Amino acid sequence: MKKTALFLSLAALGLGSAFAADPAKINWAKVPVTQVPLFYPGQSTYEWLRSDEHKNAAKEVKRGDACTACHDEESAEKDIGNKIVKGGRLEPTPIPGKSGYKDLKVQAAYDDSNAYLRFQWKTDNPYPGTEHQYLRFDGKEWKVWGFPKLDKPVQQGKEPGIYEDRLSVMLDDGKVPGFNKQGCWLTCHDGQRDNPKQFTKEEVAANPLLTSIKKSDVRKYLPETRTDPSNWKTGKTVEEIAKLKADGHFLDLIQWRAHRSHAVGMADDGYVLEFRLSDSGRDMFSGNSDNATHAPKFMWDEKKVGYKSITALQLHKGDHFLIREQNAVPFDPNAGWKEGDMIPDYLISREDAMGSAADNKAIASWKEGMWTVVIIRPLGLTNDDDKALKPGAVYNVGFAVHDDNITTRGHQVSFEKTLGLGVTKGTKVDINAVKLP
Amino acid sequence: MSHSPRARSLLSTLLACATLALATPTATAFDEAAAKALAKQNDCFKCHAVDKTKKGPSYQKIAAKYKGKPDGEEKAIKNITMGQKVKLEDGTEEDHKIIDTKDPKELKNLVQWILAQ
Asked: How far is A84 from A314, CA to CA, in rounded Å?
């Protein structure tokens, strides 16, 4: 496949509506830019923020004060991020050279059909993070190759850091208690992957809530889903959680992924409640490793792209997306595989994505060290796992960028911000989406 | 009016002295940049803004409280070096932050800046 920048027709994006703007033709020069500072939060979990380690602030955070009631001084975000990223009490495994701070430019617009959210940020690397983990043949077996930089094998220098870039938006319509004050930090807890007191398999197996939803690790959750918000091991009943969801007590989580969704012009659609969950339907990506043999399920179609697999020498040279309907064929175990052959660990498909999980589209390009991503989300979604965007309304949002081959807490994040859709003059919001002509 | 060479050199010496006096903290002059840097490094701005109430009173309010009181400087320095109990708006008490310097010049400079707000 050729270099980045995907040019997809409106039809390919599934945006056929007569009233929708062509997102590729929006004149962004006319849309105001909001600079949102993003900083590296390390392990500043819900629990840490409420402990005496957060000096003279635990009481205020517990009673629900906004982070920015105190952290609003000049360059607050830059100072916190640059300090934490170097390592110390909130970062036990610092990543050499990682930036503690990023400027995120945010613009927003809408028309009768969609909201358009445009983001720009600079990458630490001189290439776009469109590579994701691979399955690599070691002469005998296929094994996952390349890991996020906070993982041990990378820290010990045994594996290269490979993980897709991401831009995430957490969105609340005012129904999640406390999100308007403390934003994403409601969802970040001890016990999660890469956080203090990380879960063990046995602990997860002993948790009725996680076993009832068939999960084997601990991810983002809202305080309301636990009987003790600071202890993931407690949990409300599935019925109680269904009630919270029906009452809108969940966050929408939109993630644009530079490999697994960008390849097909989409952003994924999930939500945070008792776990970080995918919306109903089917995601645009799925695992490409066979459960039993760990060999790939699909490989590249040599007739179309000229190769069945790549090697490490081809990394960062072009886009290495394996797309079911474009360039993939079933894996042939007898194709004379050699040590070092690599096939993507994920299969991507626009055609297979369905239902609520397939709501969000995206157009993105990387140029001269900068990502430009436009996320396109239909207005007025009615799925029970979506927050409906409506003209005139105001939302609480948090933003995050995962840059330079990293996942979990290795992101730069924003304090809580407000997003309005064409709000009337006098209503104060950080970002106001303008109505397109 | 024209100055003799001697008068001109006297004038420049005077000017140099005046500049020096401004640069070093005296009873009336402080180094604002140094004061702010010290306050920032010690998280003072997380609880005090210049012109609005946060967890602690604004520096303007503190300055107003001590206006015209000769022991203001001394009291303020005590407040930030001794961990004295301070009262919060919700009626509870907590030990005040202790600044991480004992240098009397630095302390004096910071407090003079606060009291000038």
From this structure: 34
The DSSP 8-state label assigned to residue A284 in this structure reads: S
Give the closest residue to A415 by CA, choosing from A196, A186, A258.
A186
Residue A178, in any domain of the structure: yes
Domain that includes residue A195, residue range: 10-128+171-284+353-435
Question: Where exactly are the structural domains of chain B?
Answer: 27-115
Calculate how close chain B gets to A422, using CA atoms only, in Å: 30
CATH at A99: 2.60.40.1190
CATH of B27-115, picked from 3.60.21.10, 1.10.760.10, 3.10.450.50, 3.40.350.10, is 1.10.760.10
Q: Which residues of chain B make contact with A56, given a CB cutoff of 8 A?
A: 47, 55, 94, 97
d(CA A421, CA A292): 49
SS3 at position B10:
helix
What pLDDT shows up at residue B16?
46
> Which of A61, A70, A78, A79 is the mutation pick for testing B, counting most B CBs within 10 A?
A70
pLDDT at A4 over 60: no
- Kindly state the average pLDDT of the residues A335-352: 98
Q: What is the mean pLDDT of residues A375-388?
A: 98
Within 8 A of A71 by CB-CB distance, chain B residues are: 46
A207 located within any domain? yes
Compute the count of residue pairs across chains A and B with CB atoms less than 8 Å apart. 24
Which letter does DSSP use for residue B58 in this model?
-
Same domain (yes/no): A276, A381: yes
Answer whether A69 touches B (CB < 8 Å): yes
Note the pTM of the prediction, 2 decimals: 0.91
Selecting from B47, B94, B97 the residue whose C-beta is nearest the C-beta of A70 gives B47
Look-up of token digits 């020096």? B20
pLDDT tens digits, one per residue of A160-201: 999 999 999 999 999 999 999 999 999 999 999 999 999 999
ipTM > 0.85, yes or no:
no
Is residue A430 domain-resident? yes
